[in-house]
Amino acid sequence: MDEKSPRGSGNRTRKSGPKPGPKKEGGGTKRQSADRKRVFKRDDDEPQMRRRGDSKAGKSRGRKHEPVPIYDHEVRFDKNEPVRLNKYIAAAGVCSRREADSLIEQGKVTVNGVVIREMGQKVMVKDKILVDGQEVRPEEFVYILLNKPKNTISTTDDERDRRTVLDVIEKATGKRVYPVGRLDRNTTGLMLLTNDGELAHRLMHPSYKIRKVYQVETNMVLSDEQITALRNGVQLEDGPARAYRVDRHPVLANVIRMSIIEGRNHQVKRMISAVNAEVISLKRVIYAGLEIDDLRSGKWRSLSRKEIFQLRQLVKLLDKKTLNL
After folding, report:
1. Model-level pTM?
2. Choice among 127, 184, 294, 319 that is catalytic
């Protein structure tokens, strides 16, 4: 309980003091200052996603990137108590209760293999509920965005007892999560960890063409010819590879921002090597529309409801568009 609030009082009182005056010219919020410091423009067709700190509820916490409750998007049910089917579907993040009723009327919902069409149907947590052929559950899924630091292994464990990404987020959740894809030991930046197996599988599958954007520091200033070669494609030992987009850093001459769709092992480093240059440092700044923003190295945050929804849309999992809602 807040020490400034009287115990047992149901009403909050506004703190006394002068009202805030108008902002000074040339001022701005910390977020605006951070935006001005960005040196790269967003890809034109990169889906825009909002950080947790942009919402009113998590504004101050999101900016500091302190751990936030990871279950705030979940609704837990008593295993021994029945729950209305539309509430169950809505809690799974598929749609609203009213829209769930529409799906039930259309015959798109089955419970233990039986199509359900009547409103008010109740189910148990142990039941198997499918919407449009895909199983849905209202709890358990965890989604964590980590700014992976150097000297960290992108696996769940390491036989040589080196530090892993799970060691970095060990206090994040009591559930078992897994990294979506891998980053080299000394490659830093954005990494997604989750226990949503279907989402992870689709994000890593090449057919969904998930965009990854890297900030690449090279040992030399790349020429226009080298930049063009990266855009047009270079020949690697496992076949040709091309960058979706390459931009120069406006200040640092030996830094570029390279966007790729494929996810081969050491692909960025090998492509740079193919144009007779060498990678000094590598950082992933965007993955599947998620951005690292000013999240400090070694820090993490949970994804917002909107970010989760947009990820699922990106890989054509259950969403309002595919369900015709």
Report:
1. 0.65
2. 184
